[in-house]
DNA sequence: TGGACGATTGACT
DNA sequence: GTCAATCGTCCAA
């Protein structure tokens, strides 16, 4: 059993540490496994967060405490996965924006209807490749059929920090993190000014 | 109870 | 580069 106490860290730190960790999705006899390469931090005091206006039926899972999954439907089409972090009762989470396939690539390609980096290089794509749906919202990621596997943190020099993608509110905040060495990052650009 | 709105993607010009 | 798809959620009425 993995120790997930580190998910109780402040959301930006948790978002950094999720880089390099793995997700294992079991579908009957099939096992799909990916390595997380891109994340975004969302906290309750953040106008861009689904929890900004408080607890609702949709975002309930975001308040269940660290180690739960929060899944939302984007544009009525795409299921996107978050890992809830921070303190129980506070709506904080990390959007998993992209990952690298490690195991079960063929099944992911079938689920996606295409291959290459387009398999998992975006939040909606990853959701489809791992057969994520709204039913998994609130799921405990210590358990099958969707498990988070801890891995050592990436070296500081490998982590690129940028503004978040596709939001209109609080768009200037540097709360996106990705692995510089991965080819599965969704958008390369917008490095934070130095 | 209805209408506007996305933490996106893929097809097309 | 532009743009439509598609539906759960939220809030105004």
UniProtKB/TrEMBL annotation:
Keywords: DNA damage, DNA repair, Hydrolase. InterPro entries: Formyl_transferase-like_C_sf (IPR011034), MPG (IPR003180), MPG_sf (IPR036995). Pfam families: Pur_DNA_glyco. Gene3D superfamilies: Methylpurine-DNA glycosylase (MPG) (3.10.300.10). Its EC number is 3.2.2.-. GO terms for molecular function: alkylbase DNA N-glycosylase activity; DNA binding. NCBIfam families: 3mg (TIGR00567), PRK00802.1-3 (NF002003). PANTHER family: DNA-3-METHYLADENINE GLYCOSYLASE. This is Putative 3-methyladenine DNA glycosylase. It comes from Galactobacter valiniphilus.
